[in-house]
Write a structure and sequence with these properties.
InterPro entries: DsrEFH-like, Sulphur_relay_DsrE/F-like, Sulphur_relay_TusC/DsrF. This is Sulfur relay protein TusC/DsrF. Belongs to the DsrF/TusC family. There is one protein chain. By secondary structure, the chain is α/β, with parallel strands linked by helices. It has one domain: Hypothetical Protein Ychn, Chain: A (3-Layer(aba) Sandwich). It is 30% helix and 18% strand. The protein has a five-stranded parallel β-sheet. Helix 1 packs parallel to helix 2.
């Protein structure tokens, strides 16, 4: 059973929510085993995964490099909502990191079995 779930529902820019969520996620690895942590992208949160971002053009920090740290920290439980990808007209090939594409029902089921859910 997963102990901590980090859910990204907002776009990567416009607010600092995604950056703060990634900071919290990386900090959590110091206190939790990486197998106890899951990362979920749904709704507009799928745009965080888009590999063709140019944040410097809007004077924002690059979160793509932070997302790539998930591999380094060995956080392998990464899920993306299939219907959210479809709505955003994205595919797994558009994503900067690998994620398992699952339907919303399966995603909610996983979240319901998690001890703590943090949403950003």
């Amino acid at each position: 059973m997963m102990k901590l779930a980090f859910v990204f529902r907002g776009t990567p820019f416009g607010t600092s929510s995604s950056r703060e969520g990634l900071d919290a996620l990386l900090a959590a690895t110091a206190f939790c085993d990486e197998t106890d942590i899951g990362v979920f992208f749904l709704d507009d949160g799928v745009f965080n995964l888009l590999n063709s971002q140019n944040p410097e053009k809007i004077l924002q920090k690059d979160i793509v490099s932070m997302l790539k740290l998930l591999d380094l920290y060995e956080i392998d439980q990464r899920y993306v909502c299939a219907s959210s990808l479809e709505t955003a007209q994205m595919t797994l090939q558009d994503c900067v990191i690998s994620c398992k594409k699952i339907d919303r029902t399966a995603l909610v089921s996983l979240l319901n079995r998690t001890e703590k859910v943090l949403t950003f």
